[in-house]
TrEMBL record:
Residues 148-253, 302-416 form the Rhodanese domain. Residues 92-115 are annotated as: Disordered. This is Sulfurtransferase. It comes from the Eukaryota. It holds the Pfam family Rhodanese. It comes from Sphagnum troendelagicum. Keywords: Repeat, Transferase.
Length: 424
């Protein structure tokens, strides 16, 4: 294994250790005897406080003393402890040459986050390779936003603790939500959202990649939530954890950040109870044009100011299949278009190519110029449609947050069905 590959893999493992998902690095400069054209570097292993300590070169500093910046990382259960025991030698180009390690100087304990160069930015969704490439240099915050329908009988938090992207924190859409309503996982207040994501270690200048275990599903909901509260540097991992795993990237089950998701939910409850929470570094700025209410949708039946998409399956849209939650009527909001969220995904759970996405919306009769609002059962799968439209350049798509869970709970809201047509 080359030294650069060794450094990259160890850093990926280290990303999951600290509380906020940031590698714990203690830096020092060691003088090495070396030749100007070819330096012989090694990775060494020692014991620190009873735990394995790996000292690896992470950058080259050109100075009068020809120093080498190294990083010493001490943690139990180190992923690569048994892999980095032999001596690794490599010829490293001079600083500035192609293939050279960057000139970093001593690594600070806190590294200031900086923006991704414009040419390196992705649009809407990112690939595992993209995330791997920029993960360390730009301190990306990864979020596991997995969530399941009530009938699936799965616990996303327990699954997260067993396997997740290194350094990822867990975002529970059921607890980082408005707890004053009976409707499921509705948007929380600005203060509650800010307190929760601050607890997760996220700041206003953080770069965020969200994923889930289905490919693209509930990750789109969390992506939209960050957009609603004014955060722009947020993407969804295309294909989610399954594609991350399938492309050979590491998955871990450890990290001191594992409990932060639970603590973020506690912060939300404290905010709604009027209790003081620790001042965070994330300031939420609500974007009202990305959210629609039941009154907006009801008045639109007559005014037709916007196009309404229903992201549920066709049978539920028609009213021929019961809703997952008891007590809700079948059918759809009058005038809405049926575009199931699965129609914009391929079998692996990734977004379709842009040309195919455009065809899906065109064939459904959607006008790309007019405003769009998306509904579903409870505001989750509707965000997948918003994500797909965002990829096509339509960035002002709003979500009817209450969706069918709210609409069908009222006896006086109009409902249409296609039961007769379906049975004909």
């Amino acid at each position: 294994m080359s030294l650069s590959k060794c450094v990259q893999k160890l850093a990926m493992a280290a990303a999951s250790w600290p509380r906020l998902g940031v590698p714990f690095l203690s830096a020092r400069t060691e003088a090495l005897s070396c030749r100007p054209k070819s330096w012989s570097l090694s990775a060494s292993r020692s014991i620190c406080n009873g735990f394995p300590r790996i000292t690896i070169p992470v950058g080259v500093q050109q100075s009068a003393g020809w120093g080498l910046t190294t990083a010493s990382v001490a943690r139990p259960s180190l992923l690569l402890c048994n892999q980095i025991q032999s001596r690794h030698s490599t010829s490293i180009p001079s600083v500035g040459q192609a293939g050279a390690l960057p000139s970093m100087g001593p690594v600070p304990r806190k590294r200031e986050e900086r923006p991704i160069p414009q040419e390196a930015e992705a649009k809407t969704v990112v690939t595992p390779a993209w995330l791997q490439e920029i993960f360390f240099e730009f301190r990306v915050r990864t979020i596991d936003a997995s969530w399941y329908l009530p009938g699936e009988n799965r616990n996303p938090y327990e699954e997260y603790k067993k396997e997740h992207v290194p350094g990822a924190v867990f975002f529970n859409i059921d607890t980082i939500a408005d707890i004053t309503t009976d409707l499921p996982h509705m948007l929380p207040s600005e203060a509650a959202f800010a307190a929760a994501v601050s607890k997760l270690g996220i700041k206003n200048d953080s770069l965020i990649v969200v994923y889930d275990t289905k490919g693209i599903f509930s990750a789109a909901r969390v992506w939209w939530m960050f957009k609603v509260f004014g955060h722009q540097k947020v993407w969804v991992l295309d294909g989610g954890l399954p594609k991350w795993r399938a492309t050979g990237h590491p998955i871990v089950s450890h990290g001191t950040q594992l409990e932060l998701g639970q603590e973020a939910g506690d912060c939300v409850r404290m905010v709604y109870a009027g209790q003081k929470v620790e001042e965070g570094k994330f300031q939420a700025k609500f974007q009202p044009h990305l959210v629609r209410s039941i009154d907006d949708v009801e008045s639109n039946i007559d005014t037709k100011k916007f196009q309404l998409i229903d992201a549920r399956g066709k049978a539920r849209f028609d009213g021929t299949e019961p809703e997952p939650s008891d007590g809700h009527r079948g059918g759809h909001i009058p005038g809405s278009l049926c575009i199931p969220y699965t129609a914009v995904l391929d079998p692996s759970g990734s977004l379709l190519p842009e040309e195919e996405l455009a065809a899906v919306f065109s064939n459904a009769g959607l006008d790309p110029v007019k405003p769009v609002v998306v509904s579903c059962r409870s505001g989750v799968s509707s965000c997948v449609i918003a994500l797909a439209l965002h990829r096509l350049g339509k960035e002002d798509v709003a979500i009817y947050d209450g969706s069918w869970a709210e609409w069908s709970s009222f006896s006086d809201t109009p409902v249409e069905t296609n039961v007769a047509a379906a049975s004909a």
